[in-house]
Amino acid sequence: MMFGLKKKKKRKAATDAPKPAAPPADAKADDYIISRFDANVNDPDVEETYAVGDATVYITKDGRYLVDEPKLSRRAVAAYRRLMSNVHHSFTFRDISREEVVPLLKRTLEDESRSTLDFEVWKQEREAVEYYMVRDVAGHDVLDVLIRDPHIEDILCIEWDKPVAVVHREYPHHTLLDTNITFRTESNMERLIQRISQRYGEPPSETRPMTSFSDESGIRYTFTGNRRITPDSPTMSIRKPSVTTITVCHLLQSGLLSPLAGAYLWACMDLKGFGLVIGAPSAGKTTMINAIFTMANPIWHYYTIEDVLELNLPHRHVSRHQTTMNSSLQATQGKAEGSDSFGVFDLCKLSLRFRPDFVLVGEILGQEADGLFQAAASGSGCMCSFHASNAEHALTRLEAPPISLSKSQTALLTYVLHMSWVLHDNKRQRKLISITEIATGQDAVASAGASCASGSPGADEVPGNSDAKTLNTLFWYDPEQNRVLPDDLDEVIKRSTVLPRMKVMLGVDDIRGDIERRARILERIRDDGITDVPRIHDAINSFYHPE
Fold it and tell me: Which residues pair with 470 in a beta bridge?
């Protein structure tokens, strides 16, 4: 047991938890069998200890995430089950707001204990009994600590009788941390999946065996619910957003983005360019989009389209749109004839009626990409994320079935920003690997010559006909220096095929001076540690409205 353990590094207790899911309307007495978890660790094994509410979390040196929950005597466990069974028969869960659930249950449970022989037990172990009541009825059952821990990024359960695994924001080098949390039975896991799905989305079924949705706090749930596609067990993948708003200041201070690269991306947004942010799953694509758009023009109109709400633009004029069916599931599960569901393609077409300055799509996976590229052809700036291992592979995927975009459509792309995990100093870190311009026609010839002359990673031609494109890597990550290069503004201007457009599109005569001003503002944001979005916008506005 963990009691009496000497604590190592101590974190501030995690108190900012997402709102709990509503309790199940079909609860049974058997639902109130308590699954309690003990850490069972030795002092030398512990690397860090911190509290999540009344539970204690231990991170071990061998890469385990262990939860220790309040103790209950056998009398208290028995009393809890009797009380909750009685409360279930006299308490209506339906049509009760989540804000009312916890205090109402506490009052009801206390009143019930007074009318039984369990009141003495209730008085002696009230806090522990209430902990499990809130966890199992108003919270997320055995996953509640993981959901409430702000340091957890992903939760994965691939089989009901195997330990739940997590991705910890402070320990990315461990990749996955095994926990001491398991489901008691397969039906317990199925019941929790049904409960969360009924509250926030659609439960998996025989005809629709997988489901994906998000709650109001931005947590994304993906479940499979029968053995048609996962023969061993139901599965779950839960992705949690960061509780901290990541801004361009964080990117600059961490070295993930240089002021010059940031100034380039800022100029591309002013040009209403089309940016594609690529990388593997969980590489930081959406976080990067959210962060770089904190330096986008504060008075523009932004139109977002997502399956699961993850984009969080802090601007005054943001039109948020959500599909009624997840695009990742639509291809396999189909769209019924005459269905009134709306996908990415439908909402991209709708964007033309809103006259946005920028259209942002959380992710494109299939044929819905055609709608976004049509929006780009209309003159709106565009940005989206896409799964690909490099810029060339991204273009190949876009032009090949099932997406099948034409070469003239992919020529609308301005640049590809590549995010990836790298190993540096024996630690896994997310890094901006490259920013690659997509050059066509005369621009391609010019960029190829400039790149070869500069001694940079160079320009690669994508084979094809007259629509062939040259991929001009303008910025790249140098692992030896652990930073983004180049630092030479003159080199960037010489090699870029995008920045010369500023003369016509933005009326800029002195491109060098313009980029220098942007870079100086970003340096000031970094050096002054300006992470507050309104203050960042004030700094950005100083570029557009100099005193």
Answer: 439, 461
Closest CA to 236 of 188, 306, 171: 188
Whether pTM > 0.90 for this model: the answer is no
Distances, alpha carbon 455 to alpha carbons 223, 459, 481, 491, in Å: 49, 10, 17, 10
* Number of separate helices (H) and strands (E) present in the chain: 19, 20
DSSP string, 409-428: HHTT--EEEEEEEEEETTEE
Contact (Cβ atoms closer than 8 angstroms) between residue 39 and residue 58: yes
- In this structure, the strands spanning 358-361 and 301-306 are parallel
Residue 449 has pLDDT above 70, yes or no: no
- Give per-residue burial for 150-167: e unless 16+ CB within 10 Å, then b: bbbbbbbbeebeeebbbb
Q: Rounded to whole angstroms, how far apart are CA atoms 460 and 349?
A: 33
Q: What are phi and psi of 320, to 5 degrees?
A: -95, 135
Q: Cis before residue 463, ω within 30 degrees of 0?
A: no
Q: For residue range 303-319, list pLDDT tens digits in order.
A: 999 988 889 999 999 99
Look up residue 524 and give its DSSP letter.
H
Quick one: three-class SS letters along 242-297? CCCCCCHHHHHHHCCCCHHHHHHHHHHHHCCCEEEEEECCCCCHHHHHHHHHHHCC
Rounded CA separation 62/46 (Å): 9
CA distance 262 to 248: 8
- What is the chain's Cα-based Rg? 26
Three-state secondary-structure class, residue 429: strand
414 DSSP β-pair partners: none
